[in-house]
Amino acid sequence: MKQAARDLRKNPTESEAVLWNALRANRLAGRKFRREQPIGRFVVDFYCASERLVVEVDGGVHAQQEMEDRMRQEALETLGLRFVRVTDEQVMGDLPGVLSTIRKAFAAGGSSPLPHTSPPVGEGPGVGAAGASANAWPDPDPDFLANDPATRWMLRQQQIREQSETQTQSTHPTQPMEVAR
Questions:
Q1: What is the CATH architecture of 2-118+136-159?
Q2: In the predicted model, what is the mean pLDDT of residues 46-56?
């Protein structure tokens, strides 16, 4: 995967090169972006770790692989990553507008300002008659989950929250304490 990312970095599309010039070296709101970043078994165009934000530039090839892109995005969203998708035409024709969209995603924090492209519950491929999903999207690869820094960070944060809740419960019991008289 790392070699594939290196190869992609060596041969960017014109629109990726233009957007990278605007994102590199903390140029956009002081945020650090990585380009052609491997995340598990996927390589994303641009990734801002501090915002857990993926920026994808969709060119002509993406029209033929829309379903694969949607499944890939869904798998990455299960890890808490957010997406901003722009077309190469938007980058080349309205770079300030694209950068504004990315800034809005920073401000939104927990949700992308763009429409969510993943199907809501009960829709999409593999939905049974009762509305239950019949494995519409693939489960994340366990090796990916174990080795991905973003996932490890997320799991560590969850562990810290759980420890904090346990400590709070032990210092503040839910049942009244007997008072010695």
A1: 3-Layer(aba) Sandwich (3.40)
A2: 95
